[in-house]
Amino acid sequence: MAKNRFLHFTCFIFLLMVLLGCSENPGAPTDPGKTDSKEIDASSHILLGFWDANVIPDNHGSAEISFAPVRTSQVHLNVLGILQDTPGKLTIEGPISFTDNILEFTLRFHHPLDIPNYTVFDMRGIFIGHGSKSGFSEGLIYADDTDFQLLNADGLTRLWNPAEYSGLGYVDGHLGTPNSVANYTATLNGYKYFATDLDPDQDVTTMDTSNRGAFLVSQSAARHIVMKFADYGFQFQYAVDVNWWTPTLPVVVPDSFDVTRANCPEPYQLSVWVGPGITGDGGSTQMMVDVYDWQDDVSNMYVEAPLLFDGPITLSDPVDMGGFSRFQGIMENLNLPPDNSADLLFYAEGTDPVSMKVFRTYRLFSLPLPRTPSEGVIITLQDDMAYKTIGVNYGYGGSTYDYAGGNPAPLDPSDSNGPWDFTQIPADGSSVRSALAKTDPAVSGFAGSFSGYTQYFFQTQMSLGSTPEDVYQAEEHYEGGNLLRMWGIYYNGTALPEGVNPAIPLDPPIDFPYPMDINTHYVIDKEYIIVKVGPVVLLSLQVHFETWGIGEGPAFVPETPGVNGWGWNTQPVLVTRTVASLATGGTLGQGSMGNGLIYQWIADDGTLYGSIMAGNGTSGDPNYNEVTYEIIGSASANALRSITE
Length: 645
Hints:
By secondary structure, the chain is mainly β.
């Protein structure tokens, strides 16, 4: 036991000497080796560990993950005896999921020391792989869809990549795959931020900042990891970067650690939002970047998107939001690329006060560039079937607007080529649409009231005040005739008169033809005998539909999480206009029950993106002109807000 205490004491003295030596000249490695012209060697940034990682799938939805320490003597914090050779400093928690080359797990890092002096800050676990894309300034190389990617990165960094740090923190490990074989070429790699005050799935912007992102001694921190493998196998490298500076004594966290030296000089987090509006044919949009920086000295933000515009956009004059600074600006598609998406790079920088080195924090996103396909937007019966997959729920939100009172919905139904922006529609009311199997308990009790050809029930759940309303459409996809057949409706609500059967079977069915495109125009007239005594029709129902394809173009909907978590999604859509009317006849009939006007924006994959509906009753002022289809009164607008399984 005495011998072990002596070894730990010796390692502690060695560690102290290394750290104190670094504090005097933190920007100079003991042996710089070969470096490039950028001279981006570390400063107050310290490499706390470097591993080769290997993933072995088990073909049962899981995998084995192994980490082999990389040996190096050319870093600021060389604690081989304490960190890299101490078991259990990197552990995997909970289940490991590996499906379709997507690996999910929780990675926990354990601080190996118990002396408060060695509290570190702004720990980043950097996942290093191959890069195939470039185009941004400074020749940055980053991953595309054929490369290993960290899908839920908190940000990106250039720190410790083998291409630029060879001899300055990176050397091949004895147990891992040499870089010459693995070819870790990416110079911009994703990382996860670790801190004692940060939970595995927590957003960095919501972290308790009282400890300034500290990783406390004798403790551990865990983060949820989602990564994708592609053409270069199941290997990656893992580097742990921290910031540290000699504290004043006695040690109090974080006050004893100088914020200008102990925390990273660059922002520790960027939160980026880009609004809808840019398409493949042009357009512009607002962007907003919240910068979280311990020193609060960031005066400029930079945005690059070479496919959209030349050179970087500089955002300045930030607004102090209390805890972070907010930068805002406008982005335009000036170059009109033929691509389906454009990469956006956001970054802000800070200068290390000792070495005067400049460090950056990056965020990288792919912006979709929706445009109408050359053949147009064509909705097939198969697209409708995909939209109505059993088990998928589509959430919608919307609001009522008074066109007569000068309060129209924030999109124009007379616009025939878009783009249409549904993201401004509030969710004052909500509904969920989903397909249910005939055996589902919600419908099994009344499924027998409808034709045996019914394949499923398409349910719309509506919240009208405090009263839930459910409508079930009995439907069949008749592929032989490219027809969507509606075999009836079951209404589970409060609007039916007492004693009226909520099941309304329709035989023959109402047939809606496919495909639909901008040239679509069809008319449906059906009459159904509801009650008949001998030759006398007591009650009949007349149904009329007329539908036109009236436009196509891109649309943006407030689907969550949307694109890159920005709160919207986009796709080319077909716009249709439908007028519908119902009337009752026979000796008990009441005549017209009113007319409805429905505009629908249907995405190229068949998903209903949004709608505007207005109705004219048999009394009172009309809500739309039945000749011009102009909305002149009350109407409701709805937009897709979520897709869940």
